[in-house]
Amino acid sequence: MRRSGLFLAVILLSLVTAWADEGQHHEDLNVAQLGTVHFRISCSPSAQEPFTRGVALLHSFWYEEAEKSFQDAGKDDPRCAIAHWGAAMSLWHQLWNQPDDATIQRGVAEVAKAKSLRTRSKRERDYIAAANAFYGGSAKRRFETRAAAYSRAMERVYRRNDDDHEAAAFYALALIRSDRKQAAAILEKLFVAEPDHPGVAHYLIHTYDTPEMAAVGLPAARRYAEIAPLAPHAVHMPSHIFARLGLWQEDINSNLASIAATQKGESMHMGDEGHQFHAMDFLVYAYSQSGREAEARHVIEQIKAMPPMKDMYGLGYDPGISDVAAFEASCALEMHDWAGAANLAPVKGAGLGDSSITHWARAIGAARDHKPAEARAEVKEIEAIREKLLEQKKPQFMVEAVDRDRQEAAAWADYAEGKEEEAITRLRPLADKDGRALEASDQVPAREMLADMLLEMNRPEQALAEYQLDLKANPNRFDGLYGAARAAGMVGKPEEANRYYAQLRKQCDGSTSNRPELRVARAALQREAVRIDPDLDFFVI
Q1: Which residue, 128, 270, 442, 451, is most buried by CB atoms nearer than 10 A?
Q2: How is residue 530 annotated by DSSP?
Q3: Are 47 and 79 spatial neighbours (Cβ–Cβ below 8 Å)?
Q4: Residue 232 CB: number of other CB atoms within 10 A?
Q5: Any idea which fold 34-167 has?
Q6: Per-residue pLDDT tens for 405-426?
Q7: Which residues of the chain have pLDDT under 50?
Q8: Which residues, other chains included, contact 443 with Cβ-Cβ below 8 Å and sequence gap of 6+?
Q9: What is the Cα–Cα distance from 211 to 474, expressed in whole angstroms?
């Protein structure tokens, strides 16, 4: 813990020092504090510095500032074709964004300008051709087709330029969705040669951001924020690995530093406002897993007090509204506040997907509060939202997310209606899919829900097996540890129960939480029998 605290202090000190001059703007960003990149270009020497800064920013997904830096390079040298490649790549937020038609057209224009300048560098022409592979062709091309064409084109750049570490890094990024093992193989070699490269450490974290691979990503996670302490996303990214591994204090430290970096950048009008919400997502999650629910509530209230954000990345939504909807729902369920979840108020201004989350929590809360009719009514609301999304031809990922809400809510409604086998049958496929589909800070894992349900059905042996499976994928989750301890005690395994209780108590050390689960854990470890609440089974060592 002390090392984690020191790490946070170093990062915050770096930020304060870097931003001591309140008049600083994007062109003054210190490249040394964004990482080390070597992307030599054929443009004038005056264009090299802003271009290099743009590449470093691009590697840390600081897209707004990257675009400005590439524009600066183009102003310094109006014949700099590769600067327009950079501007085009700043518009596509790889790994999470599918550009809309307007953004595609902006990218098309940048690539067309790059091609028209006819650079004499074959290497630079290859990069421009790769961008064209994504943006070019019919306006009706599917995103998946564009992304696959770009990946193939970047492979050609990579193969033709053996000594170009930038080509290797960008190609590995293009591979993450389709071939994590190949991406990892490329990046691990680069990590040895370029330990201060922001893209290499960053993309390694994304590559290893799965339950099975997270532990391998720890070296990159602990290195990345040191490489690029000025970039909000860079300071946040280690928490993807920390959250996967249940390292809650390190997770918290990363995201506090990221929020500080974002808010500082925003104060200087550097287009950073949206970055903080993703960090807050991870922060609230980590707080809720470590008995710091008061801090989680404080973050939620901070977001509520923020002025509305007009848009984020051209996606047409306010991330603050989305976060409030998600946080209110998840916190009520994490705290086992079933009545509170069942009575959640709709979030003003919420879109269809965000409203689905509220109905999802209301359904589960009602079901676990033994109100099947209310639960079933919420399921119907989610079904109606799904139909509207289909009618409006919204992206498939939105429909799938709402459909997941529907299936989980319906499973709990089945349970509340006494349809135990139907409920299990609905939840199990979602549980089996969780390890592949969810980010570490996402809502309650389906397998943990399945384990909870089995425990409520008085099937502790089956429940324990599911908890154990889920704790491998989601280590140190509060409810998972507590549920596993209860199940182990119920099947006559007191030593195993005590191990889970001890881990739960350890990760909540220093918190002021008075959650009944923690009181049970402490009492169990003291060899005391307690009955604190009718919903908490009598536990006897």
Answers
A1: 451
A2: B
A3: no
A4: 29
A5: 1.25.40
A6: 999 999 999 999 999 999 999 9
A7: 1-24, 26, 436-437, 528-534, 536-541
A8: 326, 329, 330, 333, 357
A9: 7
> How big is the chain by its Cα radius of gyration, in Å?
25
Q: For residues 537 and 458, what is the distance between their CA atoms, to the nearest angstrom?
A: 11
Domain segments of the chain as ranges? 34-167, 468-541
Residues 34, 228 contacting (CB under 8 angstroms) = yes
Residues 6+ apart with CB under 8 A from 101: 139
Give CA–CA dist 151/133, Å, rounded. Answer: 9
Dist CA 183 CA 465 (whole Å): 33
Cross-strand partners of 539: 530
The span from the CA of 500 to the CA of 521, in Å, is: 9
Distance separating alpha carbons of residues 333 and 63, to the nearest angstrom = 35
Half-sphere exposure of 174 (CA within 13 A, CB side): 26
pLDDT of residue 5: 35
**Backbone φ and ψ of 539, nearest 5°:** -110, 125
What is the distance in angstroms between the CA of the first residue and the CA of the last residue of the chain? 31
How far is Cα 76 from Cα 387, in angstroms, rounded to an integer?
52
Going 79 to 82 to 86 to 88, the CA torsion angle's sign is positive
Q: Centre a 10 Å sphere on the Cβ of residue 46 and count the other Cβ atoms it contains.
A: 14
What is the C-alpha separation between 353 and 3, in angstroms, rounded? 40
* Cα separation, 34 vs 199, whole angstroms: 10
